[in-house]
Description:
By secondary structure, the chain is of the alpha+beta class. The chain has one domain (about 15-60, about 70-90). About 35% of the residues lie in helices and about 15% in strands. It has helices at about 15-20, 35-45, 70-75, 75-85, 90, and strands at about 25, 30, 45, 50-55. A two-stranded antiparallel ribbon has the order 1-2. It has a two-stranded antiparallel ribbon with strand order 3-4. About 20% of the residues are buried. Zinc ion (ZN) binds near residues 6, 8 and 38.
Amino acid sequence: MRCAICGLRVNSTDDAIEDGWTPYFHDGDQEHDPACPSCTETLLQEGADGEWEVKEEYRGKLRYLDEIGDRVWQDHPQVAMLVLGNEPGKLN
Length: 92
Ligand SMILES: [Zn+2]
């Protein structure tokens, strides 16, 4: 998989978790995944609800490389739990 922001690639989900990747994050109403550690540090912040979001000054200004259909990351049990616990519908 690769970072939705910069396109950095990582070989496996396990490597990504070890390296501190952020499984998903929000830019306004849009959900994106995932983000590498350096993009996380530079562009993301932890929101009041404990979810990662794009810093206000970057919101709506970033381009994303989300690969639709790449569900490998979400197949990981640890991440699937996070994702299922945060269905977009529950946020509205
Ligand atoms: Zn990145």
